[in-house]
Amino acid sequence: MMVRLNTRHELPQIAIRQTQGRLDEAAIIQPQISGRNRQSSSNQGATQSSLEINSYPSRRAYGHRTMGDLTAEQGQRGKSDVQAATSMHSRKAWSKADNAAKRGDDVVQEIKSEIFSDYGARAVFTFSGIPNPQMQGHPGEVVGEPDTGDISVDIDTAPTARIRYTPGSVETYLQNKGFIRHWVSYGNYDITA
What we know:
Layout: E1 3-10, E2 13-19, E3 22-27, E4 32-38, E5 45-46, E6 50-54, H1 56-61, H2 67-99, H3 107-115, E7 134-138, E8 142-143, E9 150-156, E10 162-166, E11 169-176, E12 179-186
């Protein structure tokens, strides 16, 4: 019987597994607009014109005085009258002390002449100019500062688009290693193995 060498083999197989690259999101980021809008306003107003009249110097010339002026004048007059009367009485007292015992000093005649001296007195008139009232006018004025307002627009943009990309992949692997087998059979080839 004849010995037969049987050989069976299978070539190695390489497989490729791949995934496609995927663009999940691609969008342009829209610009964002923001701003301020403060309206302008004048913030101005006009003051009323005014006229100040001080007529007190004129009224005082006619004799109409305030209570403060009247009491100050009367107080000063009272002081000077007291000083004049004190001085006069002191002078007369010293004169009487020195001359009372002398001949010709008639006390009664002196008192009579003092009493009747007011009858011969003449009225004294003084003339002075009456001052004009003091007037001061204030014209109306425009006051306040105008506000020009503020209108501004800010635009915020993104420097790049929003993109989310999943890259693809390629993978190679050995799907089947392959093999070579040998065996012997007797008589004929083994075709069923």
